Structure formats: structure tokens, C-alpha cells
């Protein structure tokens, strides 16, 4: 039901706000667990108090994502979810950027960015070729 159907002015105002409940609780808690672990080790919001290098957190996120991709659900030292650690790294990057404490040490490359987007063309081409091979094989099997 919308504010138009209920006539509730609070609902009309609320519908203009970001729906924070759309972020799954398990995701929030996994990220919070990793942030809490970091807060205990390094102090809460330390990236706001001291500038941080972007690539430190990019590399951390990549390591945790790679660990998850090879089957490691949890970190070995504190048993924090690796995906929560990825989310925490990204959250820190976003927050440090918003608070102007992010040192941008990325190697900017429009060439690399463009190459990644352009790679969609060869993926599509190869997938189409595979469909053609499968159709030819199916036709051959029918005869």
C-alpha cells in the first residue's frame, strides 16, 4: 500500500527516504562482525582519524574474496566471515572517501577499464560460436 491509497502523511514522507531494510540482515551482521573485529584491533573508525591508502583495502577485499572463492568461509585467525571482511573493506573505502581521509593510490587506467568493458564482445562472440557448435552437433546427431 502506498501513501496515496492509505492517506497517511507519515507514510508519504517515509516513502521519500532510503529503504534501509532492503540490505539483508545476514549481510549487515557479517560486515559488522568484520568491522567490530577491526575496531577491537585498531580502534573504531580509525580510517576517519588517520588517512588510509585505497589499495590497502582493495587488496584486503581481493584476498578475502579469493579465499571465499576457493572454499574458505571464515578467516583462520578470528573466524570472521570472509565475505563480511570484503564488505567491511568496501565500506571503509566508501566511508574514508566520504570523509576525505582516503589516499587514492590506485593506478588509474582508462585503457584497462575500457578493455574490461570491451571484453564483453569476445565473451558474446565465443558464446555464440559455442551455440552454433552445439546446434551443428545436434543436427549431425539427428542425421
TrEMBL record:
Pfam families: dGTP_diPhyd_N
Domain dATP/dGTP diphosphohydrolase N-terminal: start-end pairs: 8-106
Organism superkingdom: Bacteria
InterPro entries from the UniProt entry: dATP/dGTP_diPOhydrolase_N
Name of this protein: dATP/dGTP diphosphohydrolase N-terminal domain-containing protein
Organism expressing this protein natively: Rhizobium azibense
Amino acid at each position: 500500500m502506498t501513501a496515496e491509497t492509505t492517506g497517511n502523511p507519515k507514510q508519504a514522507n517515509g516513502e521519500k527516504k532510503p529503504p534501509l531494510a532492503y540490505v539483508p540482515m545476514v549481510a549487515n551482521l557479517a560486515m559488522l562482525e568484520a568491522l567490530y573485529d577491526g575496531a577491537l584491533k585498531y580502534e573504531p573508525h580509525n580510517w576517519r582519524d588517520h588517512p588510509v591508502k585505497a589499495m590497502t583495502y582493495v587488496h584486503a577485499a581481493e584476498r578475502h574474496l579469493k579465499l571465499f572463492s576457493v572454499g574458505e568461509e571464515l578467516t583462520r585467525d578470528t573466524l570472521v566471515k570472509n565475505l563480511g571482511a570484503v564488505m567491511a573493506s568496501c565500506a571503509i573505502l566508501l566511508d574514508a572517501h566520504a570523509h576525505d581521509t582516503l589516499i587514492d593510490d590506485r593506478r588509474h587506467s582508462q585503457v584497462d577499464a575500457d578493455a574490461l568493458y570491451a571484453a564483453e564482445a569476445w565473451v558474446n562472440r565465443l558464446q555464440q560460436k559455442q551455440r552454433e557448435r552445439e546446434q551443428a552437433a545436434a543436427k549431425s546427431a539427428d542425421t
